[in-house]
Amino acid sequence: MTPTSAEAGGLAGAPPLPAHPDPQLDAVLDSGLPHELSHALGGPFHLLLPERFDANAAAFEDVLREAGVEGRVYYAKKANKAAVWMDRCALSGRGVDVASAGELRDALGHGVRGEDVVVTGPTKAEGLLRVAVLQGCLIAVDAPDELESVLAQARAVARPARVLLRRLPPAQPHSRFGFDDGELEAALARCAQAKDAIVMEGFSFHLSGYDPLLRAESAGELVELCLKARVMGLRADRISIGGGFAVDYTDAEHWERFLREQRPEHYHAGKSFASGDFYPYHSPVAGPDALRTVLAADGLAGRLREAGVQLLLEPGRALLDRAGCTVFRVQGVKNRSGYGIVTVDGSSLSLSEQWFNSEYLPDPVLLPAHERQGEPYAACVGGATCLESDMVTWRKVRFPTRPAVGDLLVYPNTAGYQMDSNESPFHELPLPPKIVLDTAGGTTRWRLDRHPLA
Fold first, then answer.
1. What share of the chain has pLDDT > 70, as a percent?
2. pLDDT at residue 355 tops 80
3. Per-residue pLDDT tens for 176-223?
4. 354 pLDDT band (50/70/90 cuts)?
5. Of 127, 135, 126, nearest to 118 (Cα)?
6. Contacts of 381 (CB under 8 A, 6+ apart)
7. Where are the beta strands (DSSP E) in 14-160?
8. Nearest-CA neighbor of 291 among 257, 355, 244, 254?
9. What pLDDT, on the 0 to 100 scale, is given for residue 448?
10. Which of 80, 144, 145, 318 is the most exposed place for a label (fewest CB within 10 A)?
11. Tally of domains within the chain
12. Residue 278 in domain
């Protein structure tokens, strides 16, 4: 006997985890535009809200101004591949953080000046270094052999290279990034010796995690290194503290309840996730407030001002907070004992927490194709591929009614590290296009993010 909606919904659903209210996005979802786009595009898609990107970047810059600290915001391009972010950076003069020749080419191609680009990542290919030197990019040098490669490229093109020396943070000694103390001493001496080919502008570090106090402590150590480097005749007037500014997706009450109550029976097939593997979807200190905390800790802002050291930031996810969502169309629904399985027209590759053996947790929003009444219904969400593991959402989400073919599921706030980190045309399924929304002037217009000839 087939279960009813009430039986399938039952109490099987996991504790709810709604994203923070977003009236602007709600207005777009209520307008009917997502259904029109689903019909026109014939598959899943991503919606982008570039004004949010601008506002987030401006909020970080405001914190720097409030603290009286000279600094620069670089968008970490790896967080999302959309072209519109490059357009916004080019128009505003904001910086971009790249880590590959393709990312650098894309930034330059959209009008971002080379001097506004910082090149990070581990040991970089010679081709990337050559273009970076030619274009006047700031290069975060990660290792002794890379420093020699930069020097060789600079001399080959007869143009000094702008560099930061990346320090291995003592707080994370097992990191694979950066110079240890001995290597850093030798690198400083090498830079002082090779002033004809290199301009040593300062230091950086790669620090995992979201602890603002640890980031402030590491930043303070770089300020002292700048003062030491100046004694050697080096410029050393800026430090980069990278990203690591958490995004707050949901409120504390829902997040704490979720962590307290979630268990394997709340997931399809009894899937088990360790709470420690989840992204911290609630963070009491997030985004620009996290930067404010960094600057306040140990008097860092005052130390930067006194030393005349600029602070460089490379946020990715934090600049994309609420700047996009992902939309799937329901292709089918089947009942299981106590819950349902919804199949959508895309795959889990579009929600990249799977990469970390984790799950994207903010609840998807159901947009019915037609108004209807029904009882609450708990269901997981599967992708359209032939893999058991292709689950967009393993969790049994409590929907207000049983989803139906033609309904849409909207995953909120996916622009940061979600919507395109892992996407591939598996099964010859096309990559979901990105749709840029322009809501200026009280109307909503849309366009494709990348045109065929762009």
1. 96
2. no
3. 999 999 999 999 999 999 999 999 999 999 999 999 999 999 999 999
4. low
5. 135
6. 328, 341, 342, 343, 344, 364, 391, 392, 393, 397, 409
7. 45-48, 71-76, 95-98, 117-119, 138-141
8. 244
9. 96
10. 145
11. 2
12. no
Q: What is the CATH number of the domain that holds 335?
A: 2.40.37.10
When pLDDT is averaged across residues 143-171 and rounded to a whole number, the result is 97
CB 366 within 8 A of CB 333: no
Q: So what's the pLDDT on residue 348?
A: 86
3 state DSSP class of 98: strand
257-268 as b/e: b if 16+ CB within 10 A: ebbeebeeebbb
C-alpha distances in angstroms, 97 versus 54, 67, 83?
16, 23, 14
Domain annotation covers residue 454 = no
Mean of pLDDT values over 360-367: 97
255 in a domain, yes or no? no
3-state secondary structure 395-427: EEEEECCCCCCCCEEEECCCCCCCCCCCCCCHH
Range of the domain at 240: 50-248+283-316
Residues 40 and 75 in one domain: no
3-state helix, strand, coil in the chain (%, to 5): 40, 20, 40
- State the CB neighbour count (10 A cutoff) for residue 105: 13
What number of residues does the chain have? 454
Instruction: Specify the 3-state DSSP secondary structure of 337.
Output: coil
Mean pLDDT to the nearest integer, 35-40: 97
